[in-house]
């Protein structure tokens, strides 16, 4: 799968890239929401992994912008697991959620499941 990971935490992006590249996926990194939109305009992705809270443009804003033109699968990575935050992300167009912190194995399982759909 061709995957875009957008998260302002560089260490988390590195962990995700290392984990998923070992599984054969191709990853592109964005450090904030604005950069994620720019990457999305330049390339086609099978999956977006988006942090909820990022500088310049939140994950929610990114989802809304992406949903204007695409039905790509979107996983919201978030430490904000309150019901209202999850509902806001779902209403914006998020397909799945992965609560931070998460194990690399859980990430692999989710991506594998999405790839098979």
TrEMBL record:
Ranges of residues in domain Response regulatory: 2-115
Superkingdom as given in the UniProt entry: Bacteria
Keyword list, A-Z: Phosphoprotein
UniProt entry tagged with the keyword Phosphoprotein: yes
SUPFAM superfamilies given in the database record: CheY-like
SMART domains: REC (SM00448)
Pfam families: Response_reg
Stored InterPro entries: CheY-like_superfamily (IPR011006), Sig_transdc_resp-reg_receiver (IPR001789), ST_Response_Regulator (IPR052048)
4-aspartylphosphate: residues bearing it: 51
PANTHER family cross-referenced by the UniProt entry: TWO-COMPONENT RESPONSE REGULATOR (PTHR43228), TWO-COMPONENT RESPONSE REGULATOR ARR22 (PTHR43228:SF1)
Protein name listed in UniProt: Two-component response regulator
Species of the source: Bacillus badius
